[in-house]
Amino acid sequence: MRDKGHNFLRVFGIIEAVVASPWPISYSELSERLNLAKPTAHRLCDLLESQSLIQRAVDGKRYIPGPRLRSLSMSVLGSSTLLLERQLVLQSISAKIGETCNLTVPNGGTMLYLDRVETDWPLRISLPVGTQVPLHCTASGKLYLSQLASRERKRLIDTLTLEPSTPNTITDPKKLIAELKTTRANGVGIDNEEFYEGMIAVAVPINDPMGRICATLAVHGPLQRLTIDDALAHVPAMREAAERLEATLVSDLRK
Fold it and tell me: Are 213 and 249 in contact (CB under 8 A)?
């Protein structure tokens, strides 16, 4: 039983290290960090990879959280007792702005809608919880990309299919990378009719306890009611709401 418990802790240690790392991590780095023999670290990584709990990064050598682990984390957050508190924050900022607000999280090569509060206006775009949207042409996706280390950002962009959703969609990798530098500097993601014609959106980051982006708070609406300048004027209020959401997410993870 002691051996089984020890093995479990080693496996859990690898999962925890992969999740906590701000960049993809190799099995040799895991070996050193967790004081494991390299053959043991390699074997346990192979096991976790076979169960989709971790997966290879773009370079094929290092590891990032896998789809099964991401799905588990989404289930934990989605079923949280603090879901009501998050909804109250979203309802408050949605009422202040008068448009739909949502909470999105990175999900591999997309952003996943985890929570949202719809505007009362009859004219609105429906993107229900569980919807996955592209990284390259959404406010949340571009914000997430902008926060990655430059090397990882380029590697991820190289794997994406930059399909045009509208005439405004940026499909040139170099132009996208250039815009992401501005996005990173401003800390605000902007979708200027890039995902849907006639719809604009802005997003601000929600950070984990280590200061890394783990989710985004976004607002979107039809151009007839909400211009980019109008939306950007609400960024200070959105940042305040994001700080409240950070507190709920941290509380969730500590439970």
Answer: no
Task: Sheet containing 213-222: give its strands across.
Answer: 132-134, 110-117, 100-107, 213-222, 199-207, 189-192
Say which amino acid occupies 39.
Answer: P
| Domains assigned to the chain | 2-65 (1.10.10.10), 72-254 (3.30.450.40)
Residue with tokens 């569980």: 130
**Cβ atoms of 137 and 170 closer than 8 Å:** yes
**pLDDT, tens only, 187-202:** 999 999 999 999 999 9
CA distance 233 to 116: 21
Cα torsion angle, 92, 93, 95, 99, sign: negative
Supply the pTM of this predicted model.
0.74
Structure confidence at residue 169 as a pLDDT band (50, 70, 90):
very high
